[in-house]
């Protein structure tokens, strides 16, 4: 279903922050803000729910740790035990110190890579993805605030101009 | 302006008094003769005595009675020295531990100064209060070292000329490890640290009433200079006062390892005192973001400590060279619980407790984690010092707890007295405004 959106353009992140706070104070729901660079504190001002990526990161780290333990146990203890530096690989626990660097590395590897992949998927970013930003200028020097319209065009426009918007457009697009 | 509350003052004095009694008990019950030492060990655990008897019987059976006897006598002598060392070592562990907290805070403070950090100037007066302890704490450690040189105790075996006489390795190291040079180094280290601390404090107070930033700039310069001095002397200090307890053994990253301990303990104490003062209604401008930052440092340096502990352990474990592994064999054989337990208290627990960003802002949570870290770091110094001085005759009993209580009381007394001696917020610091509005 196509719905109507209002796009307000800003040229300064401080102005944008104040504008976001005022629009929120006027009880409008901000759909999205497109920025050329991350604006510190914008998520809080927009009232976005806190990210849960840290929790996934912790779980991926645990997964990496388990993979490392199982992998080293299979390679070095079960499948092909070797005597390295006078330390025969009889049991896992005896050789554990030698495996700690691998456990550490795989924990970090899993946590980091899977977290990035999760972030991309969650942000709906994948190869050959068509850009979602409504205006190419949001990758250069403009910040665009997107608000859904519910027969309140005039009132919203006045408010947005008052907050320092340099340009206001009405756009129609299909909701994803 | 903070006033040293009477309750805290009385509490710290009581701690000191009980601690003194505990340490006195340790020195009072110290065995004076070999017979007393043997009786003490026999009454403590009969198992050990039986094992020794069986060993002696075995030696006689093989016809080496004379050898066994002389070996037994030297063993008994050794036992006596270990038991005589125990109250000294208990005193030394606690004295070093609390001095090192002040030294770690001094390093952290100098880093803040040299980096011209914007978030931390609100905490400068707390850090300066803690580093005030460096003067009496350092003097106490120095006195213990002088007493060791005077053979009042047997903490450092290389100070005994008879031992050196029969020891090729120690003779080779005598150019560095000799009592005179040892004390000269101690004077230089302590003198340098205390000089920087006092001068920086003076400049910090001068900045309060200044119209320009000359004191601030001077403080910046001497802090950068001090960090260079500190990195060298801290490393050498750890060789001298901790590593030389086991004079045959050496580890090249020992200085870093001790540094990690001192900085994590120091930052933990800064966080705890900040939270305490805040809970009393002082430091109105210190917010959760400051506590969050301190907790981040606690978290990070716990991991750093574990990294260095493991690096030291793994290389020695893997290479398996006899003169290197002795250090760990002594600890794993006789100190299993504190040796591996400190991995839990210094790494696993703080790692899991402080991992969540939100928990780093919960003050009581940070204090809880801090108590675990401080306990674990005490154990860390305990197992650096005890195995080399008292061997398997260790126990965390009245002398050890007494020493900790005495130094904790003294530390609290001295630090809070110093904090009360100046306004809690540094005025006219160019970054104080940024610190007040610090928000993460």
Helices and strands, with pairings:
The complex is a heterodimer of chains A (176) and B (440).
Chain A: E1 2-10, H1 13-25, E2 30-34, H2 42-46, H3 53-79, E3 83-84, E4 87-88, H4 92-122, E5 143-148, H5 153-162, E6 167-174
Antiparallel strand pairs in A: 1-5, 1-6, 2-5, 3-4
Helix pairs in contact in A: 3-4
Chain B: H1 6-28, H2 34-44, H3 46-61, H4 65-115, H5 124-131, H6 134-149, H7 161-165, H8 168-173, H9 179-208, H10 214-241, H11 254-279, H12 288-319, H13 322-334, H14 336-353, H15 363-389, H16 398-420, H17 432-436
Short descriptors:
heterodimer; A: 176 residues; alpha+beta; Alpha-Beta Plaits; rod-shaped; B: 440 residues; mainly alpha; 0% strand
What does this structure look like?
Chain A has helices at 13-25, 42-46, 53-79, 92-122, 153-162; strands at 2-10, 30-34, 83-84, 87-88, 143-148, 167-174. Chain A folds into two domains: 2-50 and 134-174, Alpha-Beta Plaits; 53-122. Chain A has five helices and six strands, in the order βαβααββαβαβ. In chain A, strand 3 (83-84) and strand 4 (87-88) form a beta hairpin. Chain B has 440 residues and is mainly α. Chain B has one domain (85-436). Chain B is 77% helix and 0% strand. Mean pLDDT of chain B is 90; it is low at 46-66. The A-B interface holds A 54, 58, 85-87, 97-98, 100-101 and B 310, 313-314, 317-320, 355-357.
TL;DR of this structure?
The complex is a heterodimer of chains A (176) and B (440). With 176 residues, chain A is α+β, with helices and mostly antiparallel strands.
Q: Rounded to an integer, what's the Rg of chain B over CA atoms?
A: 23 Å
Name the average pLDDT of chain B: 90
Compute the separation of the termini of chain B in Å: 27 Å
What value does the average pLDDT of chain A take? 89
For the record, what CATH class of the largest domain in chain A applies?
Answer: Alpha Beta
Number of strands of chain B: 0
Radius of gyration of chain A: 25 Å
Please give the number of β-strands of chain A. Answer: 6
Q: What would you call the shape of chain A?
A: rod-shaped
Order of helices and strands of chain A: EHEHHEEHEHE
The portion of residues assigned to helices of chain A is 40-55%
Structural class of chain B: mainly alpha
Overall number of structural domains of chain B: 1
User: Under CATH, the topology of the largest domain in chain A is which?
Assistant: Alpha-Beta Plaits
Number of helices of chain B: 17
Helix/strand class of chain A: alpha+beta
Q: What is the name of the CATH architecture of the largest domain in chain A?
A: 2-Layer Sandwich
Q: How many individual domains of chain A?
A: 2
What general form of chain B does the structure show?
A: globular
Distance between the amino and carboxyl termini of chain A: 9 Å
